[in-house]
Amino acid sequence: MTLDLNVRFKEVFGNKADYQFFAPGRINLIGEHTDYNGGYVFPCAITLGTYALIRLRQDNVIRAYSENFSSDSIKTISLDNLNHQESENWTNYIKGVVYYLQEQGYRLPHGFDVLFYGNIPNGAGLSSSASFELLVGTAIKHIFNFHIDMLELVKLGKRVENEFIGVNSGIMDQFAVGMSQENHAIMLDCNTLQYELVPVDLGEYTIVIMNTNKRRELADSKYNERFSETRQALAEIQEHLPIQTLADLTMEQFEKVKHVLSTDTLVKRARHAVSENQRVIEAVAYLKENNLVAFGELMKQSHLSTELDYEVTGKELDTLVHTAWEQDGVLGARMTGAGFGGCAIALVHCDNVEDFKTKVGKIYTDTIGYAPDFYIAQTSNGAGFLE
């Protein structure tokens, strides 16, 4: 693959690349829509991700080409004009990273030619945008020898997503893409950014990613609506309890205070945020004990909460997950990512994987009208330079 991309770079730009970089995608094992509610999440990086090949230029122009959007041809970005433009689509992420780096004093002395290739399905909920943001940031840090640590790049990537692109997401995606280590998942407190690398040893089981193949556009989805609803629920509870985030509540405390919420919808949204945060804490403990059966049951409870209380799943994800639960060798399954399409994950015995894909694929295709895709998730290190 690397050789092909080198050849492609020379075809597109006329010279060979000087540098190569990779940033992974991520799955979230459990802890959905808790990150912007101040709670815990439990993601890991995966070997699907985004590659960048770069050659330095002598002027103040970035020329960018993506194999994933090859119909766009080469895009040209001036370092003197980094304004967001709706029509620019994926190049806005490059602009955003460069803009905020320069705002923080990391001035680019000149531009570069860059070729991107991603094997994360776009819109699948595996963090293709965070992968892209951290890839650009890591590459610029390396080629210009900027002394900025990965955590600062993680925060910068989140800022690009929130302020430049306009999606009210939390920090989980960028954190997982930047800070992950192979064979580990990250228990991250999104409120304090305290984290723990937890070894992932699934023994005879493996994680199967199930892609609904229904594209999910975060900025155009109900994601921002859920963000607003939980902010409203928090504000109403804060009139009665001195909490900073919904994740500060235990389920026992929530049950005592939920009557102050003004609508049933707010009760459901807040209940998911609180209960999902508790499930992360329990799930990490079970994984450390190698109790995969209990871990799988929490995956199921997590999906039901996103389906019934948070209402972010939909027919496609529910069909995949409910069908997965019925298959031999499956300990648990749930949606992963923001929902509204995208992907789900299942914890499947290695001996049952092929049969699982066949049976789930057939039922999904018969029900939805088109086929899902399946990937086996291997854990990965975070974004970095490729030798």
Q: What does this protein look like?
A:
The protein is of the alpha+beta class and 387 residues long. Helix content is 41%, strand content 21%. The protein contains 11 helices and 13 strands. The protein has helices at 2-13, 91-103, 128-143, 150-165, 172-179, 223-238, 251-257, 264-288, 292-308, 315-325, 353-368, and strands at 19-28, 40-41, 43-56, 61-66, 75-78, 112-118, 184-189, 195-199, 205-211, 330-336, 343-349, 373-376, 384-386. A 6-stranded mixed beta sheet has the order 5-4-6-3-1-13, sandwiched between helices. A hairpin with a 5-residue loop joins strand 7 and strand 8 (195-199). Helix 3 (128-143) crosses helix 5 (172-179) and helix 10 (315-325) packs antiparallel against helix 11. It starts with a helix and ends with a strand. The mean pLDDT is 94.
Name a few traits of the molecule.
six-stranded mixed beta sheet, four-stranded antiparallel beta sheet, 11 helices, 41% helix
* Percent of residues in helices: 40-55%
Uncertain stretches of 5 or more adjacent residues: none
Rg over CA atoms, rounded to whole Å, is: 21 Å
User: Describe the biggest sheet?
Assistant: 6 strands, mixed
Mean pLDDT: 94
Number of strand segments: 13
Summarize the structure.
The protein is built from eleven helices and 13 strands. The chain has helices at residues 2-13, 91-103, 128-143, 150-165, 172-179, 223-238, 251-257, 264-288, 292-308, 315-325, 353-368, and strands at residues 19-28, 40-41, 43-56, 61-66, 75-78, 112-118, 184-189, 195-199, 205-211, 330-336, 343-349, 373-376, 384-386.
